[in-house]
Design a protein that fits this description.
Elements: H1 7-20, E1 26-27, E2 36-38, E3 44-48, E4 54-59, E5 62-67, E6 73-77, E7 84-93, E8 98-114, H2 116-119, H3 128-133, E9 137-144, E10 162-164, H4 174-187, E11 191-195, H5 209-215, H6 219-230, H7 234-249, H8 272-278, E12 288-292, H9 301-319, E13 326-329, H10 345-355, E14 362-365, H11 381-395, E15 407-414, E16 417-423, E17 430-432, E18 441-444, E19 451-452, E20 454-459, E21 462-466, E22 475-478, E23 488-490, E24 499-500
Parallel strand pairs: 2-8, 8-11, 8-12, 9-11, 12-13, 13-14
Antiparallel strand pairs: 1-3, 3-6, 4-5, 4-7, 7-8, 9-10, 15-16, 16-21, 17-23, 18-19, 18-22, 20-21, 22-24
Helix pairs in contact: 4-11, 9-10
Length: 513
């Protein structure tokens, strides 16, 4: 290495370096060309600059000033704006530079989150080709957050907004797009969709580890992960990768293996997705969240009773938008059809999802009639999206439409039968959708042994259930199976929510990790 001999040259370089250290004002990547801002809301805008630098943010005739804090972070809130399809420019100015975000619309923003059934692309669905060909919606804007799993909270991501078109929509979330396109058609305002779903993800990965630890109910889960991570080294992972590559070089497939991934950065580890996927977007103005997840947690369904509402409440607390709408898809029917009553982890997970309706401003799209026994990924995403849209249109946009599936309300023992009463039944009343006889019911006495039950609709919102072998019934279950044979619905087409009247311990009661 040669030493600099000229003092003047050295001074010049030092001066240049000092100037280069001054950071240019920047925006978080969630803000970009073609984005949609949530209408009628004070939307936060944030980014980085030099500590103490004054930053000016302007759009649509309003202007706001702030000063970057000691960490170089700045944040302002825009005045609420009405929906607009007129392209606006968001300008952010600092001492050294100015950033301009073009083609900004104002409308409705929804986050589309969960695991593979939310991530599932439009191109791989029934009627996907038709949907893609007709997806010329320049007022719908799309952005996908890359899959980054980490224990370190991220403040940015590598992504960009795009204008919805046949060229851009094919690999976007089918449920997200179909939901958003119907919102757009109904309201006639721009719609922004943020897809951050990650296939196979566990709910605990979407919650900060410190929140799980503070709750107190996840010590065994967290300890299990700590032990697993501690026992796995970078060298062990490198050896797995090398072994896989050796099989590839000799032209033979690795035995029953895919390319190895590092579970430490995967979609199951507690906190990983919250840090790497969600955190960079927290605070972005939006209307609400649609969520399709639960398959990965089915084996720990009892735990999900606490975990799922904990996740929702945590998101709401951090977003600082109050109890924003949070609508989810209940698990579909899947696996072999049940021939006899039995315990079911998937039924218990559906029950945990239904229990989460105790949180305010939540809703559940029941799709127990829309699954495919052979595939955990039902290709019919239109039914899924339509039922989510019902919730949003009825609850958030004032449309007088039925949105809730009928739900068990109460029971009354009548001799050797049990009369069930349901809430959220339309004026049209209950019916069976394929054959006259309602099916999918099971009944039990004090012995807790369930048998198939005969069922009869006895009123607009009542069903009578019995079995001659059960003279003193105490409990009823409906659609209580991974893939139940069940056919009770409202005449408006919404299926009855699977349920049980008993509280006997299920098969997932002791599964915590």
């Amino acid at each position: 290495m040669q030493l600099l001999k000229t003092p003047l040259l050295l001074a010049s370089i030092l001066a240049l370096g000092s100037s280069a250290l001054k950071a240019e004002v920047t925006l978080s990547n969630i803000f970009g060309d073609h984005m949609v801002l949530q209408r009628e809301q004070a939307n936060p805008v944030w980014g980085k600059a030099d500590a103490g630098e004054q930053v000016t943010v302007s759009i649509g005739g309003q202007s706001h000033q702030t000063t970057a804090n000691k960490q170089g972070l700045w944040r302002v809130k825009l005045d609420p704006m009405e929906a607009s399809d007129q392209a606006l420019v968001l300008q952010v100015s600092g001492l050294k530079n100015q950033v301009s975000i073009a083609d900004v619309l104002v409308g409705e923003v929804w986050i589309c989150s969960g695991q593979s059934n939310m991530q599932w692309p439009l191109t791989n669905t029934y009627n996907g080709a038709v949907e893609i060909a007709s997806a010329n919606h320049p007022q719908i804007r799309l952005i996908s957050v890359p899959q980054v799993g980490t224990q370190e909270p991220q403040d940015n991501f590598n992504g960009a907004w795009s204008i919805c078109s046949p060229e851009s929509v094919g690999n976007f979330s089918a449920v997200g797009y179909l939901f958003g396109s119907r919102i757009h058609s109904a309201l006639g305002v721009p719609v922004g969709l943020i897809d951050n779903a990650w296939g196979g993800s566990a709910a605990e990965a979407w919650v900060p580890q410190e929140v799980l630890a503070a709750d107190g109910g996840y010590a065994e889960l967290l300890n299990s992960w700590d032990a697993k991570v501690a026992a796995y080294t970078d060298e062990m992972h490198a050896a797995k990768v090398a072994d896989f590559q050796t099989w590839q070089k000799v032209g033979k497939p690795a035995p029953a293996q895919r390319a190895p991934t590092d579970f430490r950065a995967g979609q199951h580890r507690p906190g990983n997705l919250f840090n790497g996927v969600l955190n960079p977007t927290i605070g972005y103005g939006m209307r609400g969240v649609i969520w399709y997840q639960g398959e990965t947690n089915a084996g720990r369904a009892t735990q999900y009773r606490n975990l799922f509402p904990l996740m929702i409440s945590t998101w709401r607390d951090l977003w600082q938008q109050g109890d924003f709408p949070f609508y989810w898809v209940q698990l579909a029917d899947y696996m072999a059809e049940a021939s006899e009553p039995a315990d079911s982890a998937w039924a218990e997970l559906r029950e945990a999802q239904t229990m989460t309706l105790a949180l305010p401003n939540t809703g559940q799209a029941v799709i127990i009639d829309a699954g495919e026994g052979r595939d955990i990924h039902p290709r019919d995403k239109t039914t899924v999206a339509n039922r989510l849209v019902r919730l949003a249109l009825a609850n958030d946009y004032g449309y007088p439409i039925d949105a809730l599936s009928p739900r068990y309300a109460s029971m009354q023992v009548k001799d050797s039968a049990i009369a069930l009463t349901f809430d959220h039944v339309s004026r049209q009343g209950l019916c069976s959708f394929d054959i006259k006889q309602p099916i999918g019911f099971a009944i039990a006495g004090e012995d807790q042994i369930f048998v198939k039950a005969d069922a009869k609709i006895i009123g607009k919102n009542k069903v009578l259930v019995s079995n001659v072998k059960v003279s003193k019934p105490v409990a009823v279950r409906y659609a209580w199976a991974n893939n139940p044979k069940a056919n009770l619905q409202d005449r408006n087409g919404l299926p009855v929510t699977p349920f049980r009247t008993d509280e006997w311990p299920g098969i997932t009661a002791n599964s915590v990790k």
